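Action item from last week, closing it out:
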Amino acid sequence: MTDTPFPALRPLRPDVVSVQSQVVYGRVGNNVAVPTLESLGLSVAAVPTVVFSNTPHYPTVHGGALPIEWFEGYLQDLSARGALHALRAVLVGYLGNPGQAEVLARWTQALQAERADLRVVIDPVMGDHDHGIYVDTGMADAYRQLLLPLAHGLSPNGFELAHLTGRPVDDMESVVAAARTLMTGRTQWIAVISAAPGTWADGEMQVVFVTREQAHVITHARIDAVPKGTGDLFSAALTGHWLNGATLPEAIANGLPNDRAGAAPHPQRAMRRIGAAEPSGQPPSQQPDPRTRTGAYPPSIFRISLESPFMQHVPSHLMRAYARQPVSFMRGSGARLWDANGVEYLDAIAGVAVTSLGHAHPEIATVIAEQAGLLLHTSNVFRIDWQEQLGERLCALAGMQRVFFCNSGAEANETALKLARLHGHRKQVAQPQILVMENGFHGRTLATLSATGNPAKQQGFEPLMPGFLRVPYDDIEAVRSAADQSPGIVAVLIEPVQGEGGIRVASADYLRQLRALCDTRGWLLMIDEIQAGMGRTGAWFGHQHAGITPDVMTLAKALGNGFPIGACLARGEAADLFSPGQHGSTFGGNPLACRVGCTVLDIMARDGMPQRAAVLGARLLTGLQKALGNHRSVLAIRGQGLMAGIELDRSCKELVGQALEEQRLLITVTRDTTIRLLPPLICDEAQIDDIVARVTRLLSSVPAFSRTNPAVPDAALQAECVR
């Protein structure tokens, strides 16, 4: 026997809470939103705000707003019943009065405090061009002050946009300008339906989709229906498709009528920028003037189709130094990112080993804001207390004695190279040489590029700086041979894990023998910990797995969790090589950067991040091995801590874009054939498993890789599948 009268009943686990009107007769509010969302496979809890016999567009109407205590009780009971554990979105429509708005705002804020990924879509229902205002006159202020800043997205009609903003919305440019005044708080996008009717072509209507950066116009067939509810249907369909993984332009298009009168069921439609060439290839001058059909569009507005909703590239004044993906991220939380369309992504690269504590870490954000209000910069002419504190703490962690602060990993390695040159001249070596590794990467300045073992990155920048000897990685005999043949060697520069080189891990025995050889020869052992350091490999620094201490160590990336900072640490003779005036940095070690660095150390030590990386890294590598170990295109799976590489038998650079588009996953590809994963250290186990699942789906979705000319790794790498 049980104490519950219906033990077989399962508790409600809605994906969406829909807070809208309800009618006895008609298809508006929840009457249309619930079946729309359910048709998309989503579970819905419907909370009524008003109950009417019908919409107010008939001669008679009975009913009214629910009492505040009832409405608040409905919301609170959802929480009390434990029904919100799987909640993904709140959809808000018609509200009965400002009191309901106040209650709903408090409830929504409490939910958002518990779950950062909760999506809130608000249709600020107030009226339309046909009937004017048909809600409480205080609702405009209630929306503006209480609810709109909580929403990720808004879906007003043109009439409501005008009343919310107090601005004219007669053409596309004024619609975009008015919409952007509502982008406060969390609001990232606005879809304005029935926008600027004076610009419509015959038989068409327009939706204007606005983000902070771009605006799009989507045309659809005119709806000449008297009964209301089309806006409620649109908002529900948009929300449902968005939750199911569509981009926002796709979700908007899917919420609109598919076919125009007289058109084939699936007409060919194409996205274009107003004033650009049509799909036929004819120049704009040979096409009908778009303004005769759609009104005057400013250059920043795009007209897009229903079947081609992706944004075009916009002209840029930035140098073409990066092969950027066509996505712009607007906010982040932990291991998640959201783009300009509100689409959520899982970050498996952490800004290339930078945001190890995740995006928008509240403690770091607080420190940045506080210090920015106190002191940003004084120059290194004066003592900087935060610099002294950070230097002391880093030296204690690494067993070093002195530190020089700069702004990046390349600058930190430049500092190390200058120390090596000074060390050589102190030893009376006229042409000092530094031993570096094949496939190593140390930066893109001229000196660090010369030290890098990647000809593709060096091409075009010759002549490179002299003074570097290159040997195979993780090969102590190659180092000994170089030592016997080149008496001018004064230092070795090496990464404990080659990140850009394909996630290749130096063996502990190799590092120990390298340390002993440097001691015997009087060389400086300089270890580049820029990518591997700060807990990522499962120890504070990658070389610590071998139980050694270098003479020089460089840091950057995760030390600032996204705020620029670099450091070069030294001990022994190397710590005293610089004298005043021999090296410097304008911004290096400023109060803000160093306070952020101290905060990062505080959090990492308190939360045991190196240990966490070891545990999660083992889970990641084991999961990848189980899922992909027998994949016919996978040559090797290797890594250490939360640095993982999946080497394939072909070039796979295109997988970066495919992962974004198909799996909503951020990855990188190194050495042309290796998928690199560098998840934030704050990931939970479910997110690590999700990374494995998405990578597995990614590789299962591409054609079988050719074995004709496989990129076979050396025997040592084939054997070293999981470390």
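Closing note: Residues 1-7, 259-313, 705-723 have pLDDT under 50 and may be disordered.
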